[in-house]
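Sequence in, structure out.
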Amino acid sequence: MVPYSRNGRFVGRESILESLEEQVGCSGLNRIALHGLGGSGKTQIALEYAYRRKDTRHIFWVHASSFPKFREDYARISREAKISVPSPTPRENQEEILRDVKLWFEGDASGDWILLLDNADNVVDFESNNSEISKFLPQGAKGTIILTTRSLCVAEREGCDVIEVGKVSDVEGQELFLRQLRISDNPQTGDKQAVANLVGFLGHLPLAITGAAAFMLETILAREADMTESILSTFFITFDRIILQTPMAANILRLIAFLDRQNIPEDLIAQSGLEGVSDSLDFRRAMGTLLGFSLVTRERDGEVYELHRLVQLSMHVYLSPRETSEWKGRAVEVVSKLYPEYSHGVRHVCAAYLPHALTVMADSAGPMVDELHCRVASHLEDTVGSQNLGSVLCELGRYGEAEEMLRHVMETWALTSLGRFEEAENLYRKVQDGQQRSLRPEHPHTLTSTNNLATVLDKQGKCSEAEEQYRRALEGFENALGPEHPTTLSTVKNLASVLTGLGQYQEAMKMLWPLRSVLGLRVELLGLEHPDTLDTLSYLALALTELENYGEAKEMSKCALILREKTLGPEHPHTLASVNNLANLHSHLGNHQEAKSLNIQAFLARETHLGPHHPDTLISMGNLARCYFDLGEHATAEYLQRQALSINTELLGEEHPDTLTSMNNLGATLHKLKRPSSAEGLYRKTLSAREELLGPEHPDTLVTLQNLAYVVGGVGRHGDSVAMLARA
């Protein structure tokens, strides 16, 4: 499993290869590092050694310059060795694949192997046993790990025996140069001196020598010109020649110089829109020119290319500031055009383009970058969890900004989850204010904060303020992401809900037209069973539910459930969400037996797969209790409500909104069971907490006050009851 062909012109370095062979054969020593400067030939030495040992050991080549590349190569090993079985969720599957490959290396099934980690240069990935790459490296005495690295720190932290890879000697450098030129006879004395001067001028770096020889060979074949030091001395001359010979090749090199230099998909170049690339013959000729000059190398049967680090740096120096700005912009345009809106069906495309998206976003700004940022964030959110935007910034090396963002995200999330809405509101306002100053009002970070602020305001019953913030967020999301983006559609649904709460039913109905339009478009373009279509169908059903249009909402929810059961299976989280939504609609319509059956289905599946303490399980438990309440089975309802109250109190505390909802519902059941004293005690406790947490005018507070009024009125305290109802 080596992605490169053997270098037929590899020369010298026998002492290093002998040391490598000796140490690989040493008992108890199974971690070795080839350490040296960039361009010193570490990768070529490792490649030559791999081919020398391929008949006696299993060889595995893994790019270790970044965690996404490491993860991709481990996934390739998993597929080709048929190691892993997919897990229920993308994140679990990703972790499981990495863990399974590690365990496979450690077990007997992998046989006798050598694992080559190329470009293991990033100290952060290897700084401890829990670092992203280190924790998935095989442990124990089985097999051999060989690193190529510029970082002595990485080699030491991995416990490697270090082999220094210095510059080539005069003799090796001259032999390498002549071998690249395919000259086997002894050159003349003057030519020998010229070659020696050239090797010295190029700093005895193998890559520079190879590039110079490739240029010279092209010159000899094309013009039969004499070799001169000035022609051979720099990469710049090589590039000047390519501009004259093959302008398309020059443009390709300019473009890929601003991408991640490794694993550049051929499709990315072929679909870049550069002039001439659509002609397959011209495209092959241009890539052949770059390959011939050793400016790029081909990996994995020509599907991806790699640009050497020195070539990339040289290109950045070669281009003028104006050209640099132009081609950085072109790189952003190309990646933005080709990086798809994330969905499960295009996850492999997103994974292949992710390193290049991270690279082009590093020092760029503007609406196109903002949109790309959001698409990348959606990908990362699905594959690595909720730290999406912070993770992107970490990948870009913007650690300070990432730390600040993640700290605010976690703090506001914690406050919201704990029901401390006023504190969360204050923090969101501070974050929003800072982002509007340092970014722009339409930046995705700012829009996300605006949307979150609206949610917190809505939870506090501040519907007018929530409406204002939702409208701002919606306008921004429509411009930045488009009306069809899931985030935009979610905001439409939330705004419709707030408008309903304000009694603006006609305005709320207008909000549904974009959802209906998007649904029709997605059915036409993607088909009814596509995940994006089903998500839109569910959003529209939820919005109709908020508007109390239960009949139409029920038909849509039923359709979404049938299709999700077909495409995802009956126990997928999205399917169970559809079961839950349809059950709620049956409850609203008075179909309590149907609602009960569906809620039992959702509750049992969630309890089995998520556990009894998961928020979704508790939601299903509460919904099922409501069904028993509606059916008059109050004793069963009480049992479930006490369970929910106990778990919520344990997990969230007595004053959390979810706990207070459980308390309020249990009070209603106790009232029905003719236990007014117990019901009154729960209602008073709920009322006190809601007044403090949400305020005396919040709708939830007023509902509890009204319930309490009915209880005290039922026991003959009519004066107290009337006073309470007057307040409510």
